[in-house]
Amino acid sequence: MEKKLTKVLVLGSGALKIGQAGEFDYSGSQALKALREEGVSSVLVNPNIATIQTSEGIADKVYFLPVNTHFVTEIIKKERPDGILLAFGGQTALNCGTELFQKGILKEYGVKVLGTSVEAIMDTEDRDLFVKRLNEIGLKTPISEAVESMEAALEAARHIGYPVMIRSAYALGGLGSGICQDEKKFIEIAESAFTFAPQVLVEESLKGWKEIEFEVIRDANDHCFTVASMENFDPLGIHTGESIVVAPTCSLSEDQVKMLQEISVKCVRHLGIVGECNIQFAFNADTNDYRIIEVNARLSR
Q: Which of 54, 185, 209, 283 sits between 20 and 30 A of 102, alpha carbons compared?
């Protein structure tokens, strides 16, 4: 940790729900303890009083305020932190950090983003950018098109061919996502998806493939390794937050796990993640074919 840092703002875990759950309270608590060990003053923003990280003695200062751009900007003005941690508050913190960056607030007040850069976060969250980045190193993603209007979405679905999968970008817990067998169902889900995000991804349906996940850690010196392998009890098409996850994977061979581990490390290094992240695969165990569904620049589970 850089010695010049004297005060760091941590965007906390907030409300507990899918994509915004207890693991962020845990990881955020560990981050705050690490800052204290390094002699760095910590400021936490977290509206949830029923969390460990808001307990006395974890953070030096706690603001029980919503994790959004308005309140975080006011806290930055008052506290003047040297750095900010975005990866310990789930999807809400990532979205808030991205907005602070895009509005120039972090630059205006000289707040350095610690860990994964906002550019890398945007590469993982913007579905179009994500596909382009992974294409640079020949990694497979679902055949997909990122769209920003209903007309473009229908055109993309007809081009890819039904059944298709539809997902919102920058959304929590699979909001606005589903598998569409026909155009009627597609219009219904697409209308819902656009209420959650301005960008929607239309992609080939991989329903029935195994859903495999890895937690990956990478530091600023490019040491990178997988921490845990996980297998979803249900196949692709059932959201992970509504399913059971088994760790470690049970039904894959050692060679298959090793192959996916190597792909995970290659992907995380190329995206420039610094810290913890989660990578999700669709995997066909009969053919060893895979697709990288998404990378979350934060802890998962």
A: 54
